[in-house]
Amino acid sequence: MRLLLVEDSVPLADELIADLTAKGYAVDWLADGRDALYQGASEPYDLIILDLGLPGKPGLELLAEWRAGGLSVPVLILTARGSWAERIDGLKAGADDYVTKPFHPEELQLRIQALLRRSHGLANQPHLEASGLQLNESEQTVSLENRVTELTAGEFRLLRYFMLHPGQILSKTRLAEHLYDGETERDSNVLEVHVNRLRGKLGREVIETRRGQGYRFAGIKA
Amino acid sequence: MRSIQRRLGLGLGGALLVVGLLLAQTSLWLFESGLRRYLEDNLRDDSEALLAALVRGQNGPQLDESRVGPAFQQPLSGHYFHIDVDGKTWRSRSLWDSTLPLPEKPGLMEALANGPQAQQLLVYRADYRRLGRSLSITVAQDYTPILDSFRRVRIVGLALGAGALLLILLLQRLTVRRALRPLERARVQIAQLQDGRRGTLDSDVPDELEPLVRQINHLLEHTEQTLQRSRNALGNLGHALKTPLAVLVSLLARSEFDAHPALRQTLREQLEQIEQRLARELGRARLAGEVLPGAQFVCARELPALFATLQMIHGQACVLSWEAEPHLSIQRDREDVLELLGNLLDNACKWADSKVRLQVLEARGGIVLLIDDDGPGIETSRRDDVLGRGVRLDEQVSGHGLGLSIVRDIVEAWRGHVDLLDSPLGGLRVSIRLPASAGGAGPS
């Protein structure tokens, strides 16, 4: 999952990036509204965390312009402006959720998970479930027929992305775009390694290879 | 109520009445005195004719009856005379059996004298010397017909005067009303301002009203700008304080603190206190209260967005509904009402099993807001505590106490009343009664 964080407070952004990275998200960070307007629309993000008090361009304007331009990525507003009138304005501008500062990091994690599941058409459930597998996002483990398997950070990222897109054919390029932030060297060999390790832990049939097209998450009851 | 219209009417009517009566009475008096002088001349002529009719007879002077005018011959004709010559008197035949009151000195008698048959007589006496004797001739004329016609003139005059007065008052009323129309329009516009149906007064008014209207508009604009400015400043202050707070709260989650759970707990509690205090004071400072007269919250326009927001926050598990008369509006600042309802409904959603309902009712000029949920409710004995300052009943569901204390602040600023009751849905009912807005104009 690749997130865009638009936040002008450097200390808060540092904390958030550390926290989100630990939870297996690839995070790109921008502090200026004008940069965010371009990059948010051109890079394939899975979710955008947006602060409203931004230099360059106010957050609400930025959001309205994204939505007017047809950007459908879920946007979570993270702001100190907590009055109900402002929340309503935020949602009217096209936000999908609203978290007010200060917040507990766990609360933000839960809201991000819920928003990602909702945007992929999955019901609001405590764990991400797909094709017989159950992913515990806080422990970074996967349960398969009551057997809990530990995952490395790279495996966890990859499996989560597969589980949010069950049955879809995902090219290597697309996987790389969504699993790594804009500054990481994208190496398709790393992907292949992670896929093979997942197959080793969960069974060969869980991830199919479509030659020349990419991978497809089939699950265990495909 | 002191009405300019009534004052002007009374003033003009009184002045016209006094002047009119004075004028009518004076002109009547002048006319009558002129008439009397004319009649006096006639009476003098009569007396001179009678003097000429006195001729020398065998035993002194004699009255030549043939030279006496016919009016003196006809009984009670209204023309009389009495001639006195050295104790010898002649009376006109017209006097019949009555006597003529005789004036004591020559000339026209000041007062009218009583004559025969209730006639009022104008009496004139002239003294002469003729045929070597001094003689006194008194002639009189009936004044009653003239008095009668004066009375008629007075009645007609009074009627005409009253009619004219009425007409003038009516015209004046019309003129004044037309002249005061801008005032009336300003009054209507101020009422609309109270109802929130307009934001400013029309500046297209007569010169006399222009400074007033401009001042009111200026004041309105100034108040609104001040409110907006202070809200922006508070928003910025909140932003400036809450972002570092968010950093601190995030830092607490770091693994370095895992070794010091007590330290982490204390820090967390203190940060939470700062956060709550900040939220409450900033929330309170944002309140518009009853500053702006034109404020209003149109239920049908604002509630759908608020409910969409709440639905999004709490998900599909909670069924939210609202009921309000179409076109019903609450005469309070929009942001205040949103803050109040947002906090109450948010709280209700946190506690409800599946249903939350808002009802907006109109009652005796004021508004009643009912927020119901089907959650566990609150015991009667603990309800007073919940409305207290920042009390939390259950730490598991965050923001309960804080939300309700902001609610209490808002309701107090509006001089309203909060009650916690049992809900027909099974949980808690929060009932908020708001009096009609301070301007006095109730909801239309």
TrEMBL record, chain A:
Question: Residues bearing 4-aspartylphosphate?
Answer: D51
Q: Which InterPro entries match?
A: CheY-like_superfamily, OmpR/PhoB-type_DNA-bd, Sig_transdc_resp-reg_C-effctor, Sig_transdc_resp-reg_receiver, WalR-like, WH-like_DNA-bd_sf
Instruction: Give the record's GO CC terms.
Output: cytosol; protein-DNA complex
GO terms for molecular function, please?
Answer: phosphorelay response regulator activity; transcription cis-regulatory region binding
DNA-binding stretch(es), residue numbering of this chain: 125-219
Signal peptide limits: none
- The superkingdom of the source organism is Bacteria
User: What is the recorded name of this protein?
Assistant: DNA-binding response regulator, OmpR family, contains REC and winged-helix (WHTH) domain
Q: Which ranges carry the OmpR/PhoB-type domain?
A: 125-219
Q: Which UniProt keywords apply?
A: DNA-binding, Phosphoprotein, Transcription, Transcription regulation, Two-component regulatory system
What is an annotated GO biological process for this record, any one? regulation of DNA-templated transcription
SUPFAM superfamilies from the entry? C-terminal effector domain of the bipartite response regulators (SSF46894), CheY-like (SSF52172)
Annotated Response regulatory domain ranges read 2-116
TrEMBL record, chain B:
For this record, the Gene Ontology CC terms, alphabetical, are: plasma membrane
Q: What is its EC number?
A: 2.7.13.3
State the Pfam families in the record.
HAMP, HATPase_c
Q: Where is the Histidine kinase domain?
A: 236-438
Example GO molecular function term? phosphorelay sensor kinase activity
Catalytic function, reaction form: ATP + protein L-histidine = ADP + protein N-phospho-L-histidine
Which protein are we looking at? Answer: histidine kinase
Organism equals Pseudomonas kuykendallii
Q: What is the lineage of its organism?
A: Bacteria, Pseudomonadati, Pseudomonadota, Gammaproteobacteria, Pseudomonadales
